[in-house]
From TrEMBL:
Residues 314-334 are annotated as: Disordered. The active site is at 379 (nucleophile). This is Beta-glucosidase. It comes from the Bacteria.
Length: 478
């Protein structure tokens, strides 16, 4: 029979699979000057002229700080099992040092209680890029002390919420913090110092290890400690030795710089060779790698699009676009002989190629890289130019197709033996998209940025059906 007449075969997920959505504090909370909160690096960066689209900032964002009950009710209506959110460090510990501000912690206590009352599992990320500005003024992540301050903060939050929250992540996408924040400068704090970016990467790793130990010292043993990496799926343009070497360099700087010490207790030797013109790595001291290499209870993987590279044409001049924002400074320290290419295929509003095969590839890589370690897809989603129709509804068939393709890739990986325990859609709500301001909409729920009214898009209803049934509806279903 023709393909169009073949019956649809449901793609069934394990019964315990978690269906979730994710957000981060600075992108949604607002209330940046309430209850003792002080500026983070993103407050400073977004209020610096020219750093964000249209000068947008997160002062109000989508006002989740005051509307969290409404947002939790939306999650419950959509049938979500879990909600991944981040804690605002400067809301809890305004200077990044010293005792907590209880008013700040109280907000997260209320949020957790509201989630639990609706049967939704909270999953906490301690750091989603909002370093207290006072710590940046003291040197930021390139300074070793920041890792120790992070561990103190982790202990404070673990003591306050560890009795009710079982899933914890120390860091979200440390690659972005280190290399977009300190090398290319397209993210806060906007510095362009390649050597500092490598120091930042190491101290983020150290901060993770110290925070994992701190959390375990104050929380029940049943709790899970993990982190979320935006590990890249790096593909060579051709199988030539030069292109394979280029892919290896980028893989070291995108992936090995984090999973090497975190999973295996060592940095790749090839990473040292690639970056020897930038630093001698003398900031790695005895005992660091053992501290970083803490046992993990799970690993979070964030995926959006693959990375396609080749050896660069020596005659090419100027910065090479790599999908991480426009900058004359590279986020890849020590690498000036690699060219980045647009993968073929459909693109999202971010200009990122839609390629679910990359998610399958990533999952299977980490199934081999960390055998026996449960995996979660902690971010996956797409930005499209969503607009309400005359009846007020928001139809986003492109996002439904995106989710169908990527969740199918997750299911294939599970069938291939991967232990994937859950999926967190990025994002629950349209929100402040960092340097892109409010110009890019990733949410399953549309937010009118004037009225702040929330409207679930057709993709939200599709995802709700998937979450309730544990199967994937047809991509056309709404």
């Amino acid at each position: 029979m023709p393909d169009s007449e073949k019956p649809v075969t449901p793609v069934t997920f394990p019964s315990a699979f978690l269906w979730g959505a994710a957000t981060s504090a600075y992108q949604i909370e607002g209330a940046v000057r309430e209850d003792g909160r002080t500026p983070s690096i993103w407050d400073t960066f977004s209020h610096t002229p020219g750093k964000t689209v249209d000068g947008d900032h997160g002062d109000i964002a989508v006002d989740h700080y005051h509307r969290y009950r409404e947002d939790v009710a939306l999650m419950a209506e959509l049938g979500l099992d879990a909600y991944r959110f981040s804690i605002s460090w400067p809301r809890v510990q305004p200077t990044g040092r010293g005792p907590a501000v209880q008013r700040g912690l109280d907000f997260y206590r209320r949020l957790v209680d509201e989630l639990l009352a609706h049967g939704i599992k909270p999953a906490i990320t301690l750091y989603h890029w909002d370093l207290p500005q006072e710590l940046e003024d003291a040197g930021g992540w390139p300074e070793r002390d920041t890792a120790y301050h992070f561990a103190e903060y982790a202990q404070i939050v673990g003591e306050a919420l560890g009795d009710r929250v079982e899933q914890w992540m120390t860091l979200n996408e440390p690659w972005c913090s280190a290399f977009l924040g300190y090398a290319s400068g397209v993210h806060a704090p906007g510095r362009t110092d390649p050597a500092a970016s490598l120091r930042a990467a190491h101290h983020l790793n150290l901060g993770h290890g110290l925070a994992a130990s701190a959390l375990r010292s104050v929380m029940p043993a049943r709790n899970s400690v993990a982190l979320a990496l935006n590990s890249a799926v790096v593909r060579p343009l051709t199988q030539s030795p030069e292109d394979l070497a280029a892919a290896r360099k980028i893989d070291d700087l995108a992936n090995g710089v984090f999973h090497g010490p975190i999973l295996h207790g060592a940095y790749p030797q090839s990473l040292f060779e690639t970056t020897k013109s930038v630093t001698d790595w003398s900031f790695v001291v005895d005992g660091d790698l053992a501290q970083i290499n803490q046992p993990l209870d799970a690993l979070g993987l964030n995926y959006y699009t693959p990375t396609l590279v080749s050896a660069a044409d020596p005659a090419a001049k100027g910065p090479r676009a790599d999908g991480h924002g426009a900058s004359e400074h590279s986020p890849w320290p020590g690498v000036d002989d690699v060219a980045f290419h647009q993968s073929p295929g459909e693109r999202t509003e971010m200009g990122w190629t839609v390629d679910p095969s990359g998610l399958h590839e990533l999952i299977m890589r980490y199934t081999e890289e960390a055998p026996g370690l449960p995996l979660y897809i902690t971010e996956n989603g797409a930005a499209y130019d969503d607009k309400p129709e005359s009846d007020g509804r928001v139809h986003d068939p492109e996002r439904i197709a995106y989710l169908h393709g990527h969740l199918s890739a997750v299911r294939r990986a599970i069938a291939d033996g991967a232990d994937v325990r859950g999926y967190f859609l990025w994002s629950l709500l349209d929100n402040f998209e960092w340097a892109y301001g409010y110009a890019k909409r990733f949410g399953a729920v549309y937010v009118d940025y004037v009225t702040l009214e929330r409207t679930p898009k057709s993709s939200a209803h599709w995802y709700a059906r998937a979450a309730r049934t544990g199967t994937l509806p047809e991509a056309e279903a709404v």
